[in-house]
Specification:
Length: 309
């Protein structure tokens, strides 16, 4: 049996793909592809968290290999087993995780035919923007905003460098921007599995620009903005003015809200660019993965519009 693992990255449409695989598992089985849906996901998600979770901490490698064996035993006649968990790429850079990941790569090579590992990357600026918003919203305000942005970027680039060096020749990297939005899951599956497949396209759980005012104007992000900016920064006053307008007019018309959001998005992008030297091509994601990039074929069919999760 061939093994194909989809390992992330986070914020590249992973949930949309996993939902499509779960919902279309019978269709995939008809095509000779097994996507386990029995007991290996938690919290209602469609990703294989049991596998990625067993690679962390002090659990023995056998806990991870047992998960894969149980998944394989669900459909031993399948030609390919597809596994998906973005958490498989999250902990690169941690020595204990990498050591176990290397051992798992070796075990996979001995127990499956031609294992391949697919990673989707995204434009660095938009990816860092998503990570900043998600992290601050979920974990609260960092004391040093500038250092916070720098550290997120360094973690991302360093993690990707470790993925490239650890996984090596078996790694396949797809650029998110090149995948058609309306056939995202079908197009990505066709690349990963080497055959034209059409699955039901699931709307990704992405928050559209017009709907994220509450997140953008949340107190954590406002404090982050103000701590990151010097008092004399040209955007500092804009932050306070926009915040005051939002608080004083909670029912302001939609167009005004959209314009304020656009101003904040522009501000956040500029702040990230000021703190992170993405212009250093030697450490861009496409340069890090340049030997592993794969092309996207023409889309197999039309579906519903979707975007990154």
């Amino acid at each position: 049996m061939k093994l194909t693992m989809h390992i992330g990255l986070h914020k590249t449409g992973t949930t949309a793909l996993q939902n499509a695989c779960r919902d279309g598992s019978a269709m995939l089985a008809d095509a000779g592809v097994h996507y386990s849906t029995a007991g290996f996901s938690t919290m209602g998600t469609a990703q294989h968290l049991a596998l990625s979770g067993s690679l962390r901490g002090s659990a023995p490698l056998q806990e991870s290999t047992d998960v894969l064996l149980r998944m394989r035993d669900e459909n031993p006649d399948a030609g390919t087993m597809l596994v998906s968990s973005e958490d498989l790429s999250t902990f690169f850079g941690l020595p204990a995780f990498e050591s176990k990941a290397r051992a798992l790569l070796g075990w996979n090579a001995e127990n499956f035919d031609d294992p391949e590992y697919f990673c989707v990357i995204r434009d660095e600026l938009s990816l860092i923007r998503s990570i900043v918003i998600q992290t601050v919203e979920g974990e609260g305000f960092p004391r040093d905003g500038r250092q916070f942005v720098k550290q997120l970027a360094e973690n991302l680039l360093g993690k990707c460098e470790r993925i490239a060096s650890t996984v090596g020749p078996a790694l396949r990297v797809v650029q998110y921007e090149k995948i058609p939005r309306d056939t995202y899951s079908s197009s990505l599956l066709s690349v990963m599995l080497g055959k034209e497949l059409v699955v039901g396209e699931r709307q990704a759980n992405v928050t559209a620009n017009k709907d994220i005012l509450r997140t953008i104007f949340g107190s954590n992000l406002r404090r982050f903005f103000m701590n990151t900016l010097d008092a004399g920064h040209p955007y500092a006053n804009e932050v306070n003015v926009a915040w005051s307008e939002m608080m004083n007019d909670l029912h302001m018309e939609t167009g005004r809200k959209a314009r304020l959001l656009d101003a904040f998005t522009e501000w956040l992008d500029r702040t990230i660019e000021e703190q992170v030297a993405f212009q250093d091509e030697a450490r861009s994601l496409t340069r890090i993965f340049e030997g592993s990039l794969v092309d996207i074929p023409a889309p197999p069919a039309a579906g519903q519009q979707q975007d990154a999760v």
